[in-house]
């Protein structure tokens, strides 16, 4: 049963301290002297930890719940709320006048007014999500290569290889600004050349730069072949399913009214839900009169009793002038994963769920097909709208 202000006010001290739970790890600790202290219990890397949110006299029930929500969001991003809290306190103290976070914010405020909104948002996320929680409270001269590498390894572990390289570059700019202003003597990011996984280490070529994505989408719109293949090409970037899942898609798994595609992912043996954007639904509504009375959404050009071949999408990309070194059918997944994280700022765990990666959450729970479903619906619509924006931009890349 959750707490209420009325219930909290009725709590009386006892001989020993006792707890009154709210929900999702938040509780009040009532001391023998009558103090009512907010605590948040959570697990990080398999260990139980606690974080204090202050006294009920200073922190209302609503504010305590807001703090809990913020802490759980940090956990979902793989960040320990206690470490983040310590870094914030350190960056705000007099001792940390030369901390990495203080200098990073100074550098950001000085140079960001001349940046595009997309670049500004991406750099801000890289600093606040990937760097400040871990090294923000350290004096900039105390941040060494291993400490920075630890931050970048966390980015690699969530599959954002390109982002790890970009974040190293951002950190390097902060260090060089610190050197120029007399608060550091060297840039440890230079020591990490060759220490990160190569940005092109994936076996599947993928376009991940927004301007080039726009060019790709315009090229796809120019495809004039078999209509189901046209639809598959347009549908693929919107849902970023595995190529085998896309080509074997069947109509019985589609609910156009609910705007959902539900199917079993054999690779990771989980049931998966793909929320369909308005743009994706429109493609299927166009296709349904042609193939809707057959099992497969995207049948073979030779017989509609079988799905299109595993090479159809790749061959179609070649036909519109996209080389195998630029983009593959599987590359739509890397494209979405990178841009949803770096450009649109969606949470990595939510992206991983939509990619149907059977990963466990910070509390050790296994993949759940309905987790984040409302948020994922919003994400998929935002993704489709963003792709439309890229496609409709002029070729000058304004």
In short:
With 398 residues, the protein is α+β, with helices and mostly antiparallel strands.
Which geometry do the CA atoms define? globular
Could you name the CATH homologous superfamily of the largest domain?
Answer: Intergrase catalytic core
Count of alpha and pi helical runs: 15
Tally of individual domains: 3
- What's the CATH topology name of the largest domain? hpI Integrase, Chain A
Major β-sheet annotation: 4 strands, antiparallel
Taking all Cα atoms into account, the compactness measure Rg is 25 Å
Structural class: alpha+beta
CATH architecture annotation name of the largest domain: Orthogonal Bundle
Beta-strand content bin: 5-15%
Which class of the largest domain in CATH terms? Answer: Mainly Alpha
Distance between the termini: 54 Å
Q: What is the β-strand count?
A: 7
* Oligomeric state of this protein: single chain
Helix and strand pattern: HEEEEHHHHHHHHHEEEHHHHH
Strand order of the biggest β-sheet:
1-2-3-4
Low-confidence stretches: none
Helix content: 40-55%
Instruction: Report the mean per-residue pLDDT as an integer.
Output: 86
Question: How would you sum up this structure, described in words?
Answer:
There is one protein chain. The mean pLDDT is 86. The chain contains 15 helices and seven strands. Helix content is 47%, strand content 10%. The chain has a four-stranded antiparallel β-sheet with strand order 1-2-3-4, with helices on one face. It has three domains: 5-72, Double Stranded RNA Binding Domain (2-Layer Sandwich); 90-192, DNA polymerase, domain 1 (Orthogonal Bundle); 210-392, Orthogonal Bundle (hpI Integrase, Chain A). With 398 residues, it is an alpha+beta fold. The protein has helices spanning 5-10, 61-76, 81-92, 100-111, 117-135, 145-157, 161-180, 210-221, 227-239, 243-247, 278-291, 312-319, 331-342, 348-354, 373-392, and strands at 18-21, 26-30, 36-44, 47-55, 254-255, 260-265, 270-275. The longest helix is centred in the middle third of the chain and has 20 residues, at 161-180.
């Amino acid at each position: 049963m959750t707490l209420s202000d009325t219930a909290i006010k009725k709590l009386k001290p006892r001989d020993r301290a006792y707890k009154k739970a709210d929900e999702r790890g938040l509780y009040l600790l009532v001391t023998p002297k009558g103090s009512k202290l907010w605590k948040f219990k959570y697990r990080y890397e398999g260990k139980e930890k606690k974080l204090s949110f202050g006294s009920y006299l200073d922190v209302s029930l609503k504010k305590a719940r807001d703090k809990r929500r913020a802490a759980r969001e940090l956990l979902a991003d793989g960040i320990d709320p206690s470490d983040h809290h310590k870094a914030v306190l350190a960056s705000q103290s007099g001792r940390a006048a030369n901390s990495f976070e203080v200098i990073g914010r100074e550098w950001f405020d000085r140079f960001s007014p001349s940046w595009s909104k997309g670049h500004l948002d991406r750099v801000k996320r890289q600093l606040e999500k990937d760097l400040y929680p871990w090294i923000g409270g350290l004096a900039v001269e105390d941040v060494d290569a291993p400490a920075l590498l630890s931050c970048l390894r966390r980015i690699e572990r969530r599959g954002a290889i390109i982002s790890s390289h970009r974040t190293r570059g951002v950190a390097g700019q902060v260090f060089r600004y610190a050197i120029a202003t007399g608060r550091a003597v060297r840039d440890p990011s230079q020591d990490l050349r060759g220490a990160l996984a190569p940005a092109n280490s994936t076996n599947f070529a993928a376009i991940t730069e927004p301007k080039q994505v726009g060019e790709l989408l315009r090229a796809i719109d120019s495809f004039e072949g078999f209509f189901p293949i046209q639809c598959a090409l347009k549908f693929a970037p919107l849902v970023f399913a595995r190529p085998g899942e896309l080509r074997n898609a069947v109509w019985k798994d589609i609910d156009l009214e609910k705007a959902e595609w539900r199917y079993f992912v054999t690779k990771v043996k989980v049931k998966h839900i793909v929320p369909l954007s308005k743009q994706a639904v429109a493609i299927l509504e166009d296709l349904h009169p042609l193939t809707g009375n057959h099992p497969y959404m995207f049948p073979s050009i030779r017989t509609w009793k079988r799905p299109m071949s595993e090479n159809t999408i790749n061959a179609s990309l070649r036909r519109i002038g996209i080389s195998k070194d630029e983009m593959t059918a599987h590359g739509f997944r890397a494209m979405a994963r990178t841009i949803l994280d770096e450009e649109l700022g969606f949470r990595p765990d939510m992206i991983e769920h939509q990619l149907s990666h059977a990963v466990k959450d910070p509390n050790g729970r296994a993949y759940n097909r309905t987790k984040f479903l409302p948020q994922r619906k919003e994400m998929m619509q935002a993704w489709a709208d963003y792709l439309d924006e890229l496609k409709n931009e002029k070729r000058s890349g304004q």
